[in-house]
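Input set for joint prediction.
Command: fold jointly, output tokens.
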Amino acid sequence: MDLIFSLIINGLATGMLIFLLASGLTLIFGLMHVLNFAHGGLFVWGAYAGVFSYAYSGSFIVGIIVAILTGLVFGFITEKLIITPVYGNLVQQILITLGFMLVLQEMIKVVFGPNVVAVKVPELLAGSWQLGDIIIIKYRIFIIFFGFIIFGLFHYMLTRTKIGLVVRAGVMNSEMVQALGINIKRIFLVVFMTGSALAALAGVLFAPYSGAIYAELGMEFAIMAFIVVVIGGMGSFQGSLFAAILVGLAGSFMAYYVPYLSLAVNMIIMVVVLIFRPQGLFTTAKG
Amino acid sequence: MNKPILLSRSNIFLFIIVLALIAFPFVMDSRTLTILVTQILIFGILAMSYDILLGYTGIVSFGHAMFFGIGAYCTAIMLNDFESTIFVFIGSIAVGMVIAGILSFIVGLLTLRLKSHFFAMLTMAISGLLLVVAEKWRSVTKGNDGFTFKAPEVFKDRIVFYLVVLALIVIVFIVLKRFVNSPLGRVLIAVRENEQRTKSLGFKTLYYKVIASVLAGVIASLAGSLYAVSLRFVNTAVLTMEITLDALLMTIIGGVGTLIGPLVGAVVIESAQHYLSGLARDFPIFERWIIFFGIIYILAVIFFPKGIVGTIQAKYFQWKDKKAQLNVVPLSKNKESSK
Amino acid sequence: MMESLLKLDNINTHIGQYHILQGVHFEAKEGEVSVLLGRNGAGKTTTLKTIIGLTPATAGSVTFLNQDITKKPTYDIANLGIGYVPEDQGVFADLTVEENIKVAMRKENDESKEKLEYVLNLFPDLKKFWKKAGGNLSGGQKQMLAMARAFVNDSKLLLIDEPSKGLAPIVIEKVMEAIVEMKKQTSIVLVEQNFYMASKIGDTFTLIDDGRTVRHGEMKELIEDDELKHKYLGIG
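tokens >
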């Protein structure tokens, strides 16, 4: 029982981090059909910028804020410099965002050094609670909690505010949104920057969770996020939460029971989804 | 009317280059240089196979390394476990090609019906999965540490191996050139230009795309086999994204959809890699040479999407058109067409 | 005569490599229903899309309220007061009727509330299904939602693409009534295959064939001209 409980906690925490990464990716794709292969680069930049400013200032909150700002700034630069010039050309977009991913990854090594950086859990969140037989690691609960708050916040924005409605409408039919007098490119820039900030946030939250960060992390996590986006349905915010938790839990249980299948399981879920529901689990047809 | 003349002229040009390449190791007695050129040729084969996908069919695969890796591992394992003879070597190439062919057939059938971004992601994920499997399956692959093996006796002489690779690249080039100029290749180009339209003309585009991906996979496996023998060593690096990216860079920088372009790209990238990593000993910044490449690559995608060969070709045709126009077309009509 | 509200002069439009429009002339006057007629594939839908800027013209000019809007982006054109109801209605399927309308409302003040009330009276069904997802509406309801949405979007001119398509005759009657009613508030450009509907509510007509304007005139003239109808519309 205690084992299953901690596996669930593990899976949820990982799932939440992937969700933060995937939710931005899915909205960026849904709105402008841009598949951003550089998204993982923003994850590592968030992790490094956050961790270094956390170490410098001694405050994890500062680290989180710096990570988010890094995400926003990098998101702005990426959209303006990388996405806009090749807008509408899918193959070029894939190629160029991947190239930018490489640059971001290597720049990490130049700016922060090529070595693995160890990260400690902030004091307030360190340690664990004991409930009978069950040991609960505080930081994991923090991630899950944080993830749900972010989900709630964005869910509220997407369903209750005008800009949220416009974003969702744009995902469904971007031409029509423009024909209603809304400059979708400006909306897209906002979404892109927000998505990048979420990726950077995921990075800085991930750092103490794993205890170590390195430049190649971005690519590894980006692949997970892509899998999640495909499973949940491109453009679906709820879908990305569901799929991220699914992938997180599956990974956590498999890692314990059938370790060599732990990575394969996500692939298998994705392949099954693609065969039976290629549009993903949560996407409805355009109407 | 111009085409056959142009083709034969460029054929003569290629012929001269091949002759020069044959003569090269005998003229320049440098082991490092021979190894470098061998490496260039091997990656040239890989890049050409990638061009079949990207340049001629218009699909972006991020999983090309898996076929390269399959070839490399087949050859390495067979040469290590059986006798290290030329026959085993040939057999291992064949086995690698068959496995790569089957795998690319299955992957293609499963993924090519999807839109290009799904395809790109899926190939990335599948090849990532294969890499993980290879890293976990240490009894066979020895993981990231890899293992060394003996190359067949004849290849002890680097020049012999070089000439074999050269012969193979010429064969591959001719085969691929024939392929892209065949009716089948024309359909692929039609798929690249407008898949929907090709479909509505009654072509089963999936079928053609699968053929292209199988061909590309098989050739990539050949390149992998040669690569393993050239190093006499193999580890999981042959399955990494970097291999795919190398092929991608070479194709883009050289010029997509030209076949010659990827070869030019291979020359540029491989020699730059070689010299820049040499420079890194004196100037540490060059350790991060990927950054320069990434930036050049990004700029190339934006400003120079046709690549080196593509741009030269376009310029050449432009010049040719102009000349033809000046000679034939009356002035008034010339004005009309230049509008 | 009244000032022309919208004017298309020798419009040429390419989609990809195809030269779809090759010389469309068209004029819409204030307070009128101007109907674009022509066979399937003649270029009527593309004409509307060119006006709203979704497929910008490659040559010629579009003038709206004495402003050249040929090269303007779609959202600017919409903001000048052109509303668009596409052939597939473009209803946001996952959004409710209310949310669909909310996306279209530029601001919330007395004037916009008045407009909203007006369309809801015009289309009582929308009020009934206020919280229903757009994707779950019937074809006729979707059409009404799309028209209401374009109307509350502060439009001085509505472009409506084949509103009768796929609707039952009784629903078509309702849509027609609504258009006649809306005409009191705004001008309308209508693309219509259904000649009965076009002839009943149209004031002027423009015949397009093979991407060119072939005839322009009062609807009365067309109704009486059997030869013209036969030649370009295959009726009469």
